[in-house]
Amino acid sequence: MHSRVKKKDDRFLFNQKDREQLKADLAEENFKRRTCSFYRYILIDDPHVLRDELYKDWFDLRILGRVYIATEGINAQISVPEPQWDQFLETLNSRSVLTSMPLKHAVREGQSFIKLAIRVKQEIVAYNIPADQYDMNHVGGYLSTGEFNKAIDNPDSVVVDMRNYYESEVGHFKTAVLPDVETSRDLLPHVKNLLKGQEEKEVLLYCTGGIRCEKASAYLLHHGFKNVKQLEGGVIQYAHDVKAQQLDSKFIGSNFVFDDRLEERITADVISVCHQCGMACDTHTDCMNQACHILFIQCPDCKTAFNGCCSAACQEFAALPLEEQWLLRKDPEKVVSKTVHTARVKPRLTP
């Protein structure tokens, strides 16, 4: 395990601005951005060194986003200025662990990030399972979009959504098994139990961009599943391929993304409902009560009626003077008494 003391000259390797200033800086930009993601499971000898190098390079290129680095690899979702795209590619190709990196481009552009955050983690996806429960040298085979579509039609196959429930509730493959979990930490054991007795079937995994299926497939293979496959590039690549190749989309609804856009529409289908009134809707909202921040689905009418809050209690709390809110937040019992949630708690946008 790496440990590191922050040095004085590291002070410029972290964001120094508040949210309002960051948003103001974005508003002044006169160029377009490209949102993309990438990952790679590969041994990184010193994640802290790579972290600092990338932060320096990408800060200078005005790249924004969220990046996790661990000894097992890298997981990144970023927003790159179009004029700096070639220089960005050079920062990847100049490093042996990042060269020739497959990039997945956003299905729908928009403001995705407001700052650059690169963090060293224990895992690039927080499954928190023991290392003896999987072998990253033995992962499930990859299926292209066309191959995945054909495999879904096989009656002896089972399709599994390897995402959290609040992702699948707004969009998923039509016949998929949808695990009812809130965090990646709960996902793998839950899926293994859901599939008990189907070890001989062809198991088809998918997630947003592919990364969660890598270790998930290795985990299921380790636990006796014979034929595990994964959708190459995830829902993001699938959406691009369906459009480019004029294929039938077996994915319906929207693709949840872990940035300020929250969703990318894949098909016109709206498969979920407002958590407050039950109207057909698939737009996620972050509760405007700063002591709550629950992520929930809210229709335009309820957004207006509740001022972007998840409940009348949160609306009442958010309307209090800031000084009073801060006093109440020092006493957790008083905060709880004023925030009655109408949806399940999802406090952070982390995959």
Explain what the structure shows.
There is one protein chain. By secondary structure, the protein is of the alpha/beta class. 30% of the residues lie in helices and 19% in strands. It is built from twelve helices and 14 strands. The strands form four sheets. The protein has a five-stranded mixed β-sheet with strand order 4-1-3-2-5, covered by helices on one side. Strands 6-10-9-7 form a four-stranded parallel β-sheet. It has a three-stranded antiparallel β-sheet with strand order 8-11-12. It is globular, with a radius of gyration of 21 Å. The two termini are 23 Å apart.
Features:
351 residues, alpha/beta, five-stranded mixed sheet, four-stranded parallel sheet, 19% strand, disordered N terminus
What's the gist of this structure?
This protein is α/β, with parallel strands linked by helices and 351 residues long. 30% of the residues lie in helices and 19% in strands. The protein is built from twelve helices and 14 strands.
Protein structure class = alpha/beta
Question: Helical region count?
Answer: 12
> Ranges with pLDDT <50 over ≥5 residues?
1-9, 336-351
Placed side by side, the strands forming the largest sheet appear as 4-1-3-2-5
According to DSSP, the number of beta strands is 14
Percent helix range = 25-40%
The whole-number mean of residue pLDDT values reads: 88
Secondary-structure map with pairings?
Elements: H1 19-27, E1 33-41, H2 47-60, E2 64-70, E3 73-81, H3 85-93, E4 104-105, E5 116-120, E6 141-143, H4 145-152, E7 157-161, H5 165-168, E8 171-173, H6 184-194, E9 202-206, H7 211-222, E10 227-231, H8 234-245, E11 251-256, E12 263-265, E13 284-286, E14 295-297, H9 300-305, H10 312-318, H11 322-329, H12 332-338
Parallel strand pairs: 2-5, 6-10, 7-9, 9-10
Antiparallel strand pairs: 1-3, 1-4, 2-3, 8-11, 11-12, 13-14
